[in-house]
Specification:
Length: 256
């Protein structure tokens, strides 16, 4: 809880609600500021229900003068309060705190003068509602969707600190490469972007390289990487071809 309030101070949470226009019309036992902390705290206490998370908040989170936080008798009130809050305050908060955090003295953050960042993706189960199933979809066992609907997330993180620089979400059917395009604006010269073999494509590589960042990506065996020129350090230049126009970009590869 201490780390939560150091990162998301009461003043910052108050500003998030203000910026999003999410103030309640009248004073309630579950005000918008409390519901912001509640939504954040649910990620810290994933094994507890609504009541347990609220108890942790009421006992440990400081509040601004005049705010009245009480624990409701029914958790249905919490569900309604979360719906009133909406996503906008959380989105604004993320924009304020996300970004690189490490310094040259932080272990694992820099390599040969370049700040290390990495792309990766994962899936989250979301509640099994008709609306979620229609929008997010999920895996199937033939003709029918199997299990919960799933949201796909791709994030750009700073190596060494694990700080999240940016994150985007989409339906299950939206691929990681497609989502990754929405994170490229975070890249800049002086960064070295790492990515696993699920990301390489001509278009994504070309756009990522255009940001000025250096790229170090794994590739799958399906990529044909003919040797164009062997370099003194044992690596070699190869060509990644665009499928339609056959345009090419030079990249450095490790020998087999």
């Amino acid at each position: 809880m201490g780390q939560l309030t150091r990162t998301f101070t009461p003043e910052l949470v108050h500003q998030a609600v203000e910026e999003a226009g999410a103030w309640e019309e009248r004073t309630k036992a579950l005000p918008s500021t409390l519901m912001v902390y509640f939504t954040l705290a649910m990620w810290l206490f994933t094994g507890q229900g609504y009541g347990g998370v609220l108890r942790e908040l009421l006992e440990n989170i400081p509040r601004r003068a005049g705010e009245k936080w009480t624990r409701p008798a029914r958790t249905g009130s919490v569900t309604k309060a979360r719906a009133r809050l909406g996503a906008a305050p959380l989105r604004w908060l993320f924009g304020q705190v996300a970004g690189v955090q490490g310094t040259p003295a932080t272990p694992g953050v820099f390599w040969r003068g370049r700040r290390l960042v990495s792309l990766d993706g994962t899936l989250f189960d979301v509640p099994a509602s008709d609306a979620n199933a229609a929008y997010f979809g999920g895996g199937s066992n033939g003709e029918r969707q199997a299990g919960y609907p799933q949201a796909r997330m791709v994030a750009l993180g700073e190596c060494g600190t694990h700080a999240v620089v940016g994150a985007v979400f989409g339906p299950f059917a939206t691929g990681e490469r497609t989502l990754a395009h929405r994170l490229l604006h975070h890249l800049k010269a002086g960064m070295l972007l790492l990515a696993d073999r699920g990301f390489p494509s001509f278009t994504l590589w070309e756009k990522a390289a255009a940001t000025g960042a250096d790229l170090l990506w794994r590739v799958s065996d399906s990529f044909r990487l003919p040797v164009v020129e062997v370099l003194p350090d044992g690596t070699y230049l190869s060509r990644l071809c665009e499928q339609r126009t056959k345009r090419t970009v030079l990249k450095t590869a490790e020998p087999n």
